[in-house]
Amino acid sequence: MSTLRKVALIAALLLGMCATAGAASSPQMHFDRYMTVESVCFTVTNPSLGQSTLYGQRFTDGTVSASTPAIVLVHGIASSTENWDFSPTWSVARALAAKGYVVYSYDRLGYAKSSYYDHPGGGYTLTTSAHRDELHDIVGEVKSGAYMTTTGSDCSGPQQPSTMQSNRVVIVGHSAGGWIVAGYPGKYHDVAAMIQTDISGSVSPPNSPLGSSSGGGFTTSPDHPDYFQFFQTSQNCRDFNTYTPGIVPYVVDIACAPPFLLSPWGEIADLGEKYAENDAYISQIGPSIPVLLTSGDHDSTAPPSVAKADYDYYKAHCGCDVTQWIVPDTAHLFMVHKSLPSWIDYVTKWLSEGPLMTGKADFTPEEWNLILEGPPSAGLIVVTAQRGGTFRESIAIGKAYVEARKDHGESELLDEIVSAKPERDHTRYHSVEELKRAGLQHLSDAVELLERKATAEEVDGYRRFVLTLAEKVAKAHRENGELVSDAERAAITEISASLGSTGQ
Length: 504
Hints:
alpha/beta, disordered N terminus, 3-stranded antiparallel sheet, 13 strands
């Protein structure tokens, strides 16, 4: 080996050791062995009305089902799926999956592995509106499961149909991706919630789109004049995206390493039209789709004053439940800052306390009746388990509804169940045994339905509510000096088995 090559090798090893040490001393996220990352391929209608394939990734952590909510992540300019998963130890997508969501990121058309170069001049047609329509295709495919999976690192190889679908979808857009999601719920009304980050989605702020930021620019690509390069150097990327005291250094090194992606001119060239369209769609969101706006307190593209004006616009025009959080010690690229775990906690808490709660509107009338029949069926099974006290215990079912509900925290689903008058018509059955068989089947069917449409936490809450109700009905009177008789205890055991639960 030559002396020069030895020197180069030693230098490379030292740099690698320094980088490793830097990563080890920086904040890291830790995920369990059930975290799975898979390549997926979506089919969308492109601006020329043909079909294009978009590359994406799917993140899951453990067992999921159709009731597991999905989150679709939409990147900004000069970005790709990588922005949502910079490292296995620092990742928006993995952190959200670890919180119990199926998470999708994708390269928007014209970016990274979703190339549109085969359409001459196509970059000019990739406007914010076009990207929004493509997002609608993706949301539909996530809901129906009509997308493909692949073992490759792009969508050029063999693909297999997906076997995973999600009933409820949340969309999250960062930077220019925020422009896309801002107008989405007002146009399509098919998502459970919308989260817009680090951009003003409404009326154009001063000096749009760069605000008072530095580092970014619009340099036309000589090879693809319908595209531009936003960053020229790593320092450009750092200046535009980061607040140095708040960063995770090794993640910034990844995020701001050249070469930098080209971006299509379309979503910049249509700024005036985009803001006007977004304003119109924001006014059509309505009460069924809540909105969360987040931005960094050191984001010079969307500084707090601009973020507040955007929030005020939503409050005045969207007719929706809108919340805002200004993230401390954070600049434009929030996912490279130490505040990311706090952002994940805030977002998932906001989702779990409102947008993703299941309610009556998520079911057909027949399905809702089945769910409502479950708790009083359990009460009747207990009431008829042993002779005596039937009238008093029947009255106790209504009282037990309210008392049992108090034991299980906040839930829109249980609130709506309790607010409905408990139906307990036992006259349609010819015997106690027939009533018990039908009641246990109601409970089993109700849980099966909820497992398809509600969250795991809500299903467990329903189970606990039914069991608590059964216990309270059984304790409504003493039988032979016993608080709960053997017959009643046996009935509760059978109820627990039908619920798929072994206890409270």
